[in-house]
Amino acid sequence: MEELSKQILEHILVIRIFVVLSFIAFLFFGAFYIANVISNIRLNRQLYTASKNESNAFGFHAEEMLRRNDIEHLIKTCDSRIETHINDPEAYLFKAKALYYQGKYHDAKRCFEQVLELESSYNYVLEPWLDSIEFKIKENAPRIV
To answer: Are the CB atoms for 61 and 77 separated by under 8 Å?
Structure first.
């Protein structure tokens, strides 16, 4: 009888541990879900506010893709934007940043130079990027051994 009581208590303890762990997992995933919902609500609010000005909407959307490291999608979005707005320096700027993060430094440099052709006031913003590209190109250049 005493042996049976110990076994029952051990099973109850295992069940309690399982219930507590399940509750902790539920709280963790619930908090993650709520944080994601809040983030999406904020992004949608920003995009809705910015949609009054199409260029700002593109910038918010591109910045969000860059923040999420969605580089391939950002490049495709920038290419689509450039097709319809060939003189939009912001589209070239975000494409250049995406290409830079992909390690395509020569292509990024061309896009940054296109930004400067369209909007020379971006020079102070682009100077560090162009300096970094020059450094990376030299760093990756073939060396004589």
So the answer is: yes
Domain ranges of the chain: 1-50, 54-145
The answer to whether 74 touches 94, Cβ cutoff 8 Å, is yes
**Cα–Cα dist 99/109, whole Å:** 9
CATH code, 54-145 = 1.25.40.10
> What value does the CA radius of gyration of the chain take, rounded to a whole number of Å?
26
Contacts of 130 (CB under 8 A, 6+ apart): 109, 112
- Model confidence pLDDT, tens digit, residues 100-140: 999 999 999 999 999 999 988 888 889 999 999 999 998 87
Which whole-number Å values give the CA distances from 97 to 8, 14, 33, 39, 65, in the listed order? 63, 53, 30, 23, 11
